[in-house]
Amino acid sequence: GVSIDAGAETQELWHNMARAIAHNFKNALVPVKTCAELLPERYNSKPFRSSFFEVVNDNIKRIDGWIEDLLRYADIKEDKREWAVIDLHDCVERAVEKAVDSFHHSNITINRDYSAEDQVEGNPEYLTSTFKALIRNALDAVQDTADPIVILRTEKIGHQAKATIEDNGAGFGGIFASKLDEIVKSEDDEEEQ
User: What percentage of the chain carries pLDDT values higher than 70?
Assistant: First the structure.
């Protein structure tokens, strides 16, 4: 097989993801900063004040959600006794409900294509939480798209079940996906040996 320095690849992935997360936070703060800079000169404008409060509240909610997700993932301590055989599409659907409940844009089309046989063994709470974060990211990515679409798919491939979340937003870009795919494959190869 191919020899990959998983430690260096993992470190590079975390650096890239940290940059992407920081970029998301910075993007959320730009409209807040702009509104704050304009506030002194436009305070007497009722439409500006209304827009100001909407922009600030929306972006604070986005940032707060990201922080909550990061804190939750920092505290994960998996216990195999909490594992069960579950339908992957059930976890994805619970995640959709949770992600959509906390999302304020209703013009996003969510297409579903679930396999009837997509059972996996795992912790339902952690899988649902993971899918919620991924779906929320997809919803965030398409919110400014002209025709926002998120596609959720589960399928059975041999003895494995696969979940796919696609969107027509900008996303992180192909470099993150390829690096993550390489790391996951190298870790899977190590476990099989």
Answer: 72
Min mean pLDDT across 44-58, 65-79, 175-189 is at: 175-189
The helix-helix angle for 6-42 and 46-74 (nearest 10°) equals 160
Return the DSSP state at 161: E
- Reference 113, options 148, 167, 163, 169; nearest CA is 163
| pLDDT over threshold 70, residue 170 | no
Distance CA 110, CA 126 (A): 22
Do 172 and 138 meet the contact criterion of CB atoms below 8 Å apart? no
- Strands 149-157, 109-113: parallel, antiparallel or unpaired by DSSP? parallel
Phi, psi torsion values for 154, nearest 5 degrees = -125, 150
Give the 3-state secondary structure of residue 149: strand
Q: Hey, is 187 helix, strand or coil?
A: helix
For the chain, what is the radius of gyration of the CA atoms?
Answer: 20
d(CA 75, CA 67): 13
pLDDT tens by residue, 30-67: 888 888 888 888 888 888 888 888 888 888 888 887 78
